[in-house]
């Protein structure tokens, strides 16, 4: 199933905003005409096809508004999605094809792009500085507003810092011993937790479990999208916390940060 996000604006509404910004009357008795919303104008931008919601969310932060997502966001591991012919047909009129590169269908997506769309590999990130750098790069590549991309990335960083502070305050005095899936390290950083050892993405062998158990973990950060730590969790009786990386249909990375912060606080407080 494809999902698209479109940005609409009323020409009259924009005009009224510009008038106010340029110093409209401060007289409380003055009347202001209500914006005319009967003739909305579509704000043009590049047509973007993104492999997953995570990739699409990066494009959204860069300022893209016309985004089609190939893999449904409600799958446990969207990169494993098997695109239908109708999914690949969406690529035909795209200006940009964005993928992370680790999708099982990445090669098919590139083939469907043909010679008309530009294919870009996106570094899916949550670490704020790395995210800001990638968002700025995508804005440049797609010819989008660099200032808007910078603003969006700054807003994400502010949200990240606020949630990080909230977790650390909630966990004051607690020193869990953490072992985590290698693809959820950002969430340990968010919480200010030191990770003693990592595992995955391959399934754990009995030998792996023995080795990791020697760290005596009290907390195991599992990857909700590709969980492989059940044997370790059972062996150590540690508190398991599922961490999320892929956003929902709203393509809101801030919401993912908050959801993971809530999960950490609930499990550890």
Q: Please, could you describe this protein's structure?
A:
The protein is an alpha/beta fold and 269 residues long. The chain is 41% helix and 16% strand. The protein has helices spanning 11-21, 53-62, 85-89, 106-113, 128-141, 146-170, 185-191, 206-213, 230-236, 253-268, and strands at 3-5, 8-10, 40-42, 47-50, 66-69, 96-99, 118-121, 178-181, 195-199, 219-223, 239-243. Strand 4, helix 2 and strand 5 (66-69) form a beta-alpha-beta unit. Helix 2 (53-62) crosses helix 5, helix 6 (146-170) runs parallel beside helix 10 and helix 8 packs across helix 9. The chain is globular. The model is unreliable at 1-43 (pLDDT under 50).
Main sheet properties: 5 strands, mixed
Give the distance, in angstroms, between the N- and C-terminal Cα atoms: 39 Å
Low-confidence stretches are 1-43
Radius of gyration: 22 Å
Helix content: 40-55%
Total helices: the number is: 10
Q: Reading side by side through the largest sheet, how are the strands ordered?
A: 1-5-4-6-7
Extended strand count: 11
The 3D shape can be described as: globular
Q: What is the strand content?
A: 15-25%
Give average pLDDT, whole number.
Answer: 87
Order of helices and strands: EEHEEHEHEHEHHEHEHEHEH
Structural class: alpha/beta
Summarize the structure.
This protein is an alpha/beta fold. It has helices at 11-21, 53-62, 85-89, 106-113, 128-141, 146-170, 185-191, 206-213, 230-236, 253-268, and strands at residues 3-5, 8-10, 40-42, 47-50, 66-69, 96-99, 118-121, 178-181, 195-199, 219-223, 239-243.
